[in-house]
Specification:
The chain is an all-alpha fold and 165 residues long. It has one domain. Helix 4 crosses helix 5. It is built from six helices and no strands.
Length: 165
């Protein structure tokens, strides 16, 4: 006969939500409104929501829940949609302790590290692009008459019996 295990009542698993600082606030502060398509307004809204989450008594439970169930939208536990995607990429499950809650300070460190690495990669791309622009500007232009690359192509076409321009 199968052994039965004790199930916790569902309300007990969700009681932490009743203690959240977001409980009596407008959902639009934490979730992207349909009519809000601007990046600046989104950043302002997300920053305001994160400030609410900063000293919330259930931030750890909220962040853990959002990461465990893969919440795709809104600010949960102080993490935006992009933050949670980054944490999924760099890994977060190893921060979960015996209480089955994620270690938020460790998550914050990983997120900061991932952002710093993304910024370094962006800086490298920008520096490489700048070097290419400087190199392109400093090279003398070659003309067909000077025997440059385009002159060679024209000569090759003529030698093959193709009239070039």
């Amino acid at each position: 006969m199968a052994r039965l295990t004790a199930l916790r009542p569902i309300s007990e698993a969700w009681d932490w939500q009743m203690l959240g600082r977001c409980r009596k606030r407008e959902g639009a502060q934490f979730f992207h409104p349909d009519d809000d398509l601007g990046r600046i307004s989104r950043r302002l809204r997300e920053a305001a929501a994160k400030r609410v989450c900063d000293d919330c008594p259930v931030r750890v439970q909220c962040a853990t829940h959002a990461l465990e169930v893969g919440e795709e939208y809104g600010v949960w536990g102080g993490y935006t949609e992009n933050d949670r995607a980054t944490l999924r990429d760099v890994g977060w499950r190893d921060t979960v302790g015996q209480e089955r809650l994620a270690d938020v300070p460790t998550l914050d460190e990983r997120l900061a590290g991932a952002r710093a690495e993304a910024q370094r990669a962006k800086d490298r791309r920008m520096a490489n692009a700048q070097r290419r622009r400087v190199t392109a500007v400093s090279r003398p232009a070659t003309s067909p008459d000077a025997g440059g690359a385009s002159g060679t192509r024209a000569a090759n076409r003529q030698g093959c019996g193709v009239t070039g321009t």
